[in-house]
Amino acid sequence: MVPDNASFETKMQRLEQIVRSMERGDVALEESLKLFQEGTELVRSCGKLLDDAELQVKKVMTAPDGSPVLEDMPNE
């Protein structure tokens, strides 16, 4: 289990480990359910971190005259 205050990268690494374990298919049902729950929580947490980062980027952006400008991030 990854602590709540872990970095985005740490959470993503743990999520990748969970996915690999579940894809191998050699995990018991109970353990698979625990891993699925942990993975779901990590996805939610990483999504929130990304949303927060997007808001920070929007706040930092400025117009040529120095006034702040909010622009939507391009969807890729």
The low-pLDDT segments are none
- The residue fraction in helices comes out at 55-70%
Number of strands: 0
Main sheet properties = none
Question: Rough shape?
Answer: elongated
| N→C terminal distance | 31 Å
Structural class: mainly alpha
Which series of helices and strands comes N to C? HH
Count of domain modules: 1
Main attributes of the structure:
Helix Hairpins, elongated, 64% helix, mainly alpha, 0% strand
Can you describe this structure?
It is a single chain. The chain is an all-alpha fold and 76 residues long. It has a single domain (1-76), classed as Orthogonal Bundle (Helix Hairpins). Helix content is 64%, strand content 0%. The chain is built from 2 helices and no strands. The chain has helices spanning 8-24, 29-60. Helix 1 (8-24) packs antiparallel against helix 2 (29-60). It is elongated and about 60 Å long. The relative contact order is 0.12. The mean pLDDT is 88.
Write the layout of secondary structure elements.
Elements: H1 8-24, H2 29-60
Helix pairs in contact: 1-2
